[in-house]
């Protein structure tokens, strides 16, 4: 698959880059992508939810009524879960939601996501560029020239502080690097914009596995 390289004005530079079938031409594995996204979202959960049980709520432990002769059920404490203000039965407790996935599976998931974007013609190539200072307006203009209207993921070969800061305030734009790109971000974007050097970095990254 060949893609034309655009400049920051959205114009065709006349150069083309051939995308490797080993990275962008695989048959997407939906289950691998599902597991990788599931792990990513699970890792975002703090797991700090907590409710109080009957031994933790404030209240008297005095027996509130006699054992027999009231016509009602036995009751030993106002902190019982059957009373308003009592403890909760089997309530949530702090826990860790993360789980393990094999590296090979995560690799297949990312390759599947890249191949899916390439198959749907949602990948754009732009020549290497930089900004003299963090300028959101200037960065927004570059994206407009590239005709990106929805969610956009820009993948840089390495961290560029000015570009990262320029795109930080744009709600539908995320700037990432080749090493940090993940399946969730790839599937959660409408347009993948690769800086030209990022293609080689991606191919080197996955060929080294």
From TrEMBL:
GO terms for cellular component: ribonucleoprotein complex; ribosome. Residues 44-75 are annotated as: Disordered. It comes from the Bacteria. This is Large ribosomal subunit protein uL4. The lineage of its organism: Bacteria, Pseudomonadati, Bacteroidota, Cytophagia, Cytophagales. Part of the 50S ribosomal subunit. Belongs to the universal ribosomal protein uL4 family. Gene3D superfamilies: 3.40.1370.10. One of the primary rRNA binding proteins, this protein initially binds near the 5'-end of the 23S rRNA. It is important during the early stages of 50S assembly. It makes multiple contacts with different domains of the 23S rRNA in the assembled 50S subunit and ribosome. GO terms for molecular function: rRNA binding; structural constituent of ribosome. Pfam families: Ribosomal_L4 (PF00573). Keywords: Ribonucleoprotein, Ribosomal protein, RNA-binding, rRNA-binding. HAMAP family: Ribosomal_uL4_B (MF_01328_B). The keyword rRNA-binding applies. GO terms for biological process: translation. It comes from Pontibacter korlensis.
